[in-house]
Amino acid sequence: MFAWRRTAVRKRVVVNLADKAFDGVLWAKRGPLLVLRDAILLEAGREPQRIDGEIVIERSRVEFMQVLAVTGGG
Known about the structure:
The chain is mostly beta strands. The chain is built from no helices and six strands. The chain has a single domain (6-67), classed as SH3 type barrels, CATH 2.30.30. Helices cover 0% and strands 49% of the residues. Strands 1, 2, 3, 4, 5 and 6 form a six-stranded antiparallel beta sheet that branches. Strand 3 (33-42) and strand 4 form a beta hairpin.
C-alpha cells in the first residue's frame, strides 16, 4: 500500500542540506531519519570526501533529494 515511500531506497541519491550535500546509497528510512551508505561529502569549494560507515541525516534538515539515474552500457 505504501510502496511509493520506498521508491528511492537502495538507490544512489544526492541529499541536499542547507550547507552541504551527500552523494550515497539511501539504505533506509527510519522514521525521521535517512541512512546513507557508500557516501561522499560534497561541499562548495572543496574536493569531494569519501565517508566511512553510515551517515544518519534528520529528514527535517533535508532541503531536497535527487534520485540519480542509473546508466549502463548495452
